[in-house]
Every structure is written in structure tokens, then in C-alpha cells.
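Subject: Sanity check before I submit

Could someone independently write out the C-alpha cells for this chain? I want to compare against mine line by line before I put it in a report. The sequence has 176 residues.
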Amino acid sequence: MSSFDSYKSNNLGRFQEEKNDDAKRNNNNYTQLNKLNFRFLQGGVGLVQDIRFSNIQVSEVQTPIIIDQFYCDKSTCRNQTSAVAVSGVQYENIRGTFTIKPVHFACSDSLPCSGISLTGVQLRPVQVPHYHLNNPFCWQAFGELYTPTVPPIACLQIGKPAGNNLQTYNDICWHY
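---
Independent answer below. Compare away.
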């Protein structure tokens, strides 16, 4: 059985693992989760790379898929330009329902997210009283749509960010 965890970065780039105890298999061999998210405190340093989420069912989740390099765990945070690098995150056969928006990719201007891939993503809206449905959100998020998505996630920029030569963990953490 696969483990699907979300990670939160502190300002030193270490990752605090948040186990999702709600993970369950259903009869269609899908894992049921509340959300698939990466949230990083602003000003973090480090790299999240080569993560795959596959065969996951979500139900009535506000925003099921999140990458957020601007996360703030206080009421106000000072905007910082450094960020945890995010590269090679794959979403495969993600299905279910959402109540606010299906996808939120908020990536840094100075270190855009790259290599995001979406295959077989089918997230349908559920109207909940007092909630307003929003379209997918992407900022500085680059990757590929390998199959059409439901709803269409047209905001993902196809390809790689210009000038982003980040290749490995050593490039970001051990560059002399």
C-alpha cells in the first residue's frame, strides 16, 4: 500500500511530515484522501522533487490539489522571494469532487514550479451553500497535460520556465 503524505517546509528547508490518517482503499483500488498538498512557508530553502500521486479519490474537498510556495501560518507574513524548489510532481488518475476550486498552484516568481504533470485528473464541482466555486489557479506553474482534465486546467504553462536551470538538489543547496 502506498503512503501519501503532505509536507510543510520550515524556513530552514526541513520538512515536517504530516501523515494523512484518512487514507483508505476503496473497491476500485483508489486511495481515498482529503487532499494532495504541498505548502511551504515563504523564505524556505530546499527541494521537493519526483513525487507521484496516483489512483486517488477525493470527496467534497475545498481544494484537492495544492502547491503553495507562499504559505503563511500567521495572520500576516512578510513577502519573501526565496522558496523551496518544486520539480517533477505527477498527478495520475485523481478523481472526485471539490467545493471551492480543483487546483491551486501558487509558485514563486524567483523559483517557479516545474515538471508538474497531470494525467487522468477528473474533479467535479459540488455546490455547497455559502461557497463560491472558482476556476483552477496557477501562478508560475509549468508542466504538461498528458490527457484532458476535468475541469480544464488551462492555466498550467506548458513546458519549462525560461531561465530555470535547476537540475538537482546539489544545484540549489551546494552551489559554491
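---
OP: Matches mine. For the report I'm noting this point. Residues 8-173 form one domain.
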